[in-house]
Design a protein that fits this description.
By secondary structure, this protein is mainly beta. It has one helix and 32 strands. The protein is globular. The structure holds beta-D-fructofuranose.
Length: 488
């Protein structure tokens, strides 16, 4: 049975999407069918296709009562919209269907696990959101909310865990056929991730605090937990103030060891997953051929309300990235399927960057560009390189590398945006070489540094006509460049 609320959302999106032309959307980044998008949800494989859901407010371009939008894909790049999957239409989720995840049961049913939000008036008269975990079972298009919802509520929480900040379940099936989920939470001690167990995906019990402390702020959102290259990764979305490499909202990647029998996680290192301004609330999936792929919400939550409500759509997801661990560090690479979108190729070798350089055939706003920068004298520390893109007479976004402090700086001050102006990323040149892969889409830039050891992501809303690219350097720097235009 489809509720009136869901029916209304489905009718609205079909009607409203007609006013959005293809040319108004990003070329290879996911955007909402209509209205507002935030976190990716329920990223999973079902019947041989990838299913992606997203936090969705179809009725305008700002955050509002949360629905789940839905799309399917065969390559994680070309998405076909499906009707909205969930609406806030029951007493336990009437104020929002917040983030969650999905899996496919061995019998072929598709299971969604999400956070139901309802408002409660406290004894002091104040209104607060109470958050519980809920299920919906479906066939890839229609999803029926489980009659036993909510399956996890305050009764199942340890004593000092918050019932107000208890959200974003990530579910998985273990090899022994039982189920686990991690949920974001907080206690007075700081942010934490709680682990729950279930024999069948429907009946859930609290197991333990998987990880938690004050280092990364007071609330940990959107946890994801998985094995990778012999290690285990816990990813959390957090707010950290006062970190020079952090704009406030970002994703931390904790690498450690997981004892499968005892369900314990021992952390060995922690690092930012993306040093740019706009990467948050991620979700990962295992591809059909065994690659672990991450997709994040490509927006700083703090600046997601600066645009007009009247826009027909707002919100983008990052390019899907393949994850690996090398020498104890997380690496990210744009998903290899992106190469199929490459068109015209332009190549230059050993271009000296002493003067301002603009290269024939190197311009545009939707492209994949690989640069190798070679510093002639690697002992000379006062060298730097600047790459400007999305450039016209008045505007540009720039990326500047300073040898002196081994720092890459992304600068949006002239990009015509009123968002946070830039971000810093520590990046070492190796043997006097720095490698950058820059992906530009109409409204974003993603920079993969030294083979994906670090990444910087930012949205850019400069007019599309600003498509210039230029290079300059202080010092003797030679550049190799390969550029491809990208097409749908
Ligand atoms: C992260 C988040 C989640 C929550 C959702 C609500 O961006 O705050 O914790 O489930 O957005 O839309």
């Amino acid at each position: 049975m489809i509720s009136e609320k869901l029916k209304k959302a489905r009718e609205y999106e079909v009607c409203r999407e007609k006013i959005i032309g293809r040319e108004a959307r990003p070329v290879f980044h996911m955007s909402p069918r209509t209205g507002w998008l935030n976190d990716p949800n329920g990223l999973s494989v079902y019947n041989g296709e990838y299913h992606l859901f997203y936090q969705y407010h179809p009725y305008d371009a700002h955050w509002g009562p949360m629905h789940w939008g839905h799309a399917v894909s065969r390559d994680l790049l070309h998405w076909e919209y499906r009707p909205a999957a969930l609406a806030p239409d029951t007493p336990y989720d009437g104020d929002g269907c917040f983030s969650g995840s999905a899996l496919t049961f061995p019998d072929g049913r598709h299971l969604l696990m999400y956070t139901g939000v309802r408002k409660e008036i406290g004894e002091d008269g104040g209104i607060r959101d109470v958050q519980t975990q809920c299920l919906a079972v479906g066939n890839g298009t229609d999803y029926e909310k489980y009659e036993g919802n909510p399956v996890l509520d305050e009764k199942k929480l340890p004593r000092d865990a918050s019932r107000y900040d208890f959200r974003d379940p990530k579910i998985w099936r273990k090899n022994d056929g039982t189920y686990r989920c991690v949920v974001g939470n907080c206690s007075e001690e700081g942010g934490q991730v709680l682990l729950f167990t279930s024999p069948d995906g429907f009946n859930w019990e609290y197991q333990k605090v998987l990880a938690g402390d004050k280092r990364f702020g007071m609330m940990w959102e959107c946890p994801d937990f998985f094995g990778l290259d012999g290690k285990n990764m816990l990813l959390i979305s957090v707010n950290i103030q006062g970190n020079p490499y952090h704009n406030g909202n970002g994703v931390m990647g904790l690498i450690g060891d997981y004892d499968d029998g005892a369900d314990t996680f021992v952390e060995q290192s922690a690092r930012l997953v993306d040093y740019g301004t706009d990467f948050y609330a991620l979700q990962t999936v295992m591809t059909t051929d065994g690659r672990r792929v991450i997709i994040g919400w490509m927006q700083d939550p703090a600046t997601g309300w600066l645009h007009s409500r009247e826009l027909p759509w707002y919100g983008q997801l990052s390019v899907p990235r393949e994850l690996s661990i090398k020498n104890g560090k997380l690496y990210q690479k744009p998903i290899r399927e992106l190469e199929a979108l490459r068109g015209e190729r332009v190549e230059y070798r050993k271009v000296p960057l002493k003067e301002l350089v603009m290269l024939e055939g190197v311009r545009g706003r939707t492209l994949d560009m690989e640069l190798t920068l070679v510093f002639a004298d690697r002992r000379k520390r006062d060298q730097n390189v600047t790459i400007r893109f999305a450039q016209d007479k008045e505007h540009c976004t720039s990326l500047r590398y300073c040898m002196q402090d081994s720092m890459l700086k992304l600068d949006r001050q002239l990009s015509g945006t009123n968002m946070v102006s830039g971000a810093l990323c520590p990046a070492e040149s190796v043997d006097g070489r720095l490698e950058l892969r820059i992906l530009l889409d109409r409204y974003s830039v993603e920079v993969f540094i030294n083979g994906g050891e670090q990444v910087m992501t930012a949205v850019i809303f400069t007019e599309q006509a600003a498509d210039g690219i230029s290079f300059s350097a202080d010092g003797e720097v030679l550049m190799d460049l390969v550029k491809y235009d990208l097409y749908q």
